[in-house]
Specification:
One of its GO terms (biological process) is mRNA processing. This is PAN3 protein. Keywords: ATP-binding, Coiled coil, Cytoplasm, Metal-binding, mRNA processing, Nucleotide-binding, Zinc, Zinc-finger. Interacts with PAN2. Interacts (via N-terminus) with PABPC1 at lower efficiency than isoform 3. Interacts with PAN2. Interacts (via N-terminus) with PABPC1 at higher efficiency than isoform 1. It is a single chain. By secondary structure, the chain is an alpha+beta fold. Among the domains are: 268 residues, Transferase(Phosphotransferase) domain 1 (Transferase(Phosphotransferase), domain 1, Orthogonal Bundle); 114 residues, Helix Hairpins, CATH 1.10.287.3700. Helices cover 34% and strands 11% of the residues. It has 22 helices and 15 strands.
Length: 706
């Protein structure tokens, strides 16, 4: 039985990657509450000199001790004092008094501004975070009173100011995000929301069902907040360290049954990801290909994605009317890979076309390769115009995927139409499945709909400019190039001809669908159009035939891409269902690998400690003290033998022991020295303490603090 753990630490760093023991929210009076120790996580620059504050609940603001506001008459008293002394509070009376006296706090007031800091971060919080959540989607029963409507977001009648409204606390150092970053309590998702828990010696009754007043001290300031987390039901037991879980039933039934359970991602997905990584990291030897410059504008490490055109080439491409080349390059500004499409020998005369480029840069769609920037350069030895797009590794054009077989064209042109004895079976005709064609139609029409809605036209709906990644994922490439190359400076409105270009997009879409249905580019030629439609009628549904006829036939009115939605019909839901099922499978494969990074960092830390030859001029450092226990634990992990003296290798044993060490469970193990003269019985929590102390000692020495 192979066991796996889920990560309880959100940090990918080696410095703080240990798992915390499973625990729910501690009551405010619990001496073991982890909420009181969160200040240790703050950096040195954030540990300002503590200043004592009290919570003046009548005016709902922090009042420094000794100020004039502190000496004013306060019939209620300080909630902090009552919680410390255990004085019970009648919440019904408390809510009635606060409804009459509570005032909405002013986040820009001086008492809310951190000492020595600027107001920019606070203003960002009040303008971005608070305005976005000023209106709740679902009203909470405890916030239905008129007084609650005047509270700022995050405020509660039954608690003090939230950390976002407190002094010396920014959104980055507030205890609330740290509480949310901890591993969630699994019981929270299994308990009805009406469950409630009481807090001993704090309040007599919670303000509403399922709410508990918690307190937390950070930097000398005490915060009170309402904890709405339901308490786990009595009798529930959860593992105190992470284990492997079986596949979800809906995913297990989608995959073929294997002889043995798989604990790693599928080989097909792994190979696809590896190929993408290899293509992304590919480079060229500059000495072998001197025609490729080392740097173009802010891009470097250029790698040709297409065969480079000969230097003396005169003929131009049929797509754009210019010689083009394509490269993968890395932007030095963000270190991300991009695809550069170079237009040879083009000099940009007027920059008015950049209005259209800015419109293209705003389009973000899953089936469109996003245009990032356009610039001119002489790095290639001549005037060139370069379009920078997002780079999708492993993509190939629809032309190379489906129309690169010369035998398909010969079969299509040599077939004697009308002399067959009946419809030929599709598998013998070499045609594409209709479900695949509809999947392409849904994606291409979705891309056109987004482009046309933005007031632009695609103008590159061609098999040579449509990228296929994975099995069926399509992306329209090279958008915006025609808008720059054919820009007319005499036109006052650059969008005047977009309606005409949009109609041409629909005709181009019809040609692409017809070519896919015939599995041949010869089918879209005018002399073969009747034969192609007969082939579609024989082998495919009437909906597909009607869609092709609608797109290729001239209409007396302006057509829209939305007109083909009734022809797609329920097949849209089929594609949506297939996409979500694919997402479930990929998420399941991700779940198999999610713990590998944490376990690797754990082994990396352990490797820096074990067998270290010398530390602080002490050659016996790794053989004494806490390091000796870790050495024996390393032997317990990897060097066990059977009764016959043969190596005992069990991956589940290694993973289980590492997960228990990371969680620090109280389970005891016996560590035996190599000479078998010493047997030490320790718990995993003791080993974790030794492990963390030793590694922190190494970190301190590496930083020059020892």
């Amino acid at each position: 039985f192979l066991q796996r753990m889920t990560n309880s630490s959100s940090s990918p760093s080696l410095l703080n990657d240990s798992a915390k023991q499973y625990a729910g929210h501690d009551p405010l009076t619990s001496p073991n509450s982890s909420l009181f120790n969160d200040f240790a996580a703050l950096s040195v620059s954030q540990r300002r000199k503590p200043r004592k504050y009290r919570l003046g609940m009548l005016d709902e603001r922090i009042v420094p001790v000794g100020s004039k506001a502190r000496k004013s008459k306060n019939p209620i008293g300080c909630l902090a004092d009552r919680c410390k002394t255990g004085v019970p509070i009648n919440m019904v009376w408390w809510n009635r008094v606060t409804e009459n006296n509570l005032q909405t706090p002013n986040p820009s007031a001086s008492e809310f501004i951190p000492k020595g800091g600027s107001t920019s971060r606070l203003s960002n919080v009040s303008q971005s975070s608070m305005s976005a959540f000023s209106q709740a989607l679902f009203s909470h029963p405890s916030m239905g009173s008129p007084a609650a409507a005047g509270l700022a977001p995050g405020m509660s009648l039954s608690a003090g100011s939230s950390p976002l409204h407190s002094p010396k606390i920014t959104p980055h150092t507030s205890p609330a995000p740290r509480r949310r970053s901890h591993t969630p309590n699994p019981a929270n998702y299994m308990v009805p929301t009406s469950a409630s828990a009481s807090v001993a010696n704090a309040v007599s009754q919670p303000p509403s069902t399922g709410q508990v007043i918690q307190k937390e001290t950070v930097g000398g300031t005490t915060y009170f907040y309402t904890d709405t987390t339901p308490a786990p039901l009595t009798g529930m037991v959860f593992p105190n360290y992470h284990i492997y879980h079986p596949a979800a039933p809906h995913v297990a039934y989608m995959q073929p049954k294997a002889n043995a359970p798989s604990f790693f991602m599928a080989d097909e997905l792994r190979q696809e990801l590896i190929n993408r990584h290899l293509i992304t990291m590919a480079q060229i030897d500059q000495a072998d290909i001197p025609a490729v410059p080392a740097e173009v504008d802010s891009y470097h490490s250029l790698f040709p994605l297409e065969p480079l055109p000969p230097p003396n080439r005169i003929q131009k491409t049929s797509n754009f009317g210019y010689i083009t080349s394509c490269y993968k390059a890395v932007n030095s500004k963000d270190d991300l890979p991009y695809c550069l499409r170079r237009i040879h020998g083009f000099r940009l005369v007027n920059t008015k076309c950049m209005v259209l480029v800015d419109m293209w840069k705003k389009i973000q769609h899953s089936n469109i390769v996003t245009l990032r920037e356009v610039f001119t350069t002489k790095a290639f030895g001549e005037h060139s115009l370069v379009f920078a797009y997002d780079f999708h590794a492993g993509g190939e054009t629809m032309m190379s995927r489906h129309f690169n077989d010369p035998s398909a064209d010969s079969y299509f042109t040599k077939r004697k139409w009308g002399q067959h004895d009946g419809p030929l079976p599709r598998q013998h005709a070499g045609l594409l499945p209709e479900s695949l064609i509809w999947a392409y139609i849904v994606q291409l029409s979705s891309a056109l709909r987004t482009i046309h809605t933005a007031g632009l036209a695609c103008r590159v709906m061609d098999p040579t400019k449509i990228l296929v990644t994975g099995k069926t994922r399509l992306r329209v490439n090279c958008v915006g190039i025609f808008d720059v190359l054919t820009f007319d400076n005499s036109q006052n409105n650059p969008l005047a001809l977009m309606a005409q270009f949009q109609q041409a997009d629909l005709i181009s879409l019809g040609k692409v669908v017809l070519a896919l249905a015939c599995n041949s580019l010869s089918g879209i030629q005018r002399e073969n159009l009747q034969k192609a439609m007969e082939l579609v009628t024989i082998n495919y549904s009437s909906d597909l035939k009607n869609l092709i006829l609608y797109l290729l036939t001239d209409q007396n009115r302006l057509r829209s891409v939305n007109d083909i939605m009734p022809m797609i019909g329920a097949r849209f839901y089929t594609q949506l269902d297939a996409a979500q099922m694919r997402n479930d499978v990929i998420e399941e494969d991700l779940a198999k690998e999610v713990q590998n990074g944490r376990l690797f960092r754990l082994l990396a830390k352990l490797g820096t400690i074990n067998e270290r030859p010398e530390f602080q001029k002490d050659p016996t450092w790794s053989e004494t003290g806490d390091r000796y226990l870790l050495k024996l634990f390393r032997d317990h992990l990897f060097h066990q033998v059977t009764e016959a003296g043969t190596p005992w290798i069990d991956l589940s044993h290694i993973i289980s022991c590492l997960n228990k060490l990371d969680a620090g469970v109280p389970e005891k193990i016996s560590l035996i020295s190599r000479d078998e003269k010493s047997v030490l019985v320790v718990t995993y929590s003791d080993l974790k303490r030794c492990f963390e102390n030793t590694f922190q000692e190494l970190i301190a020495a590496a930083n020059g603090q020892l």
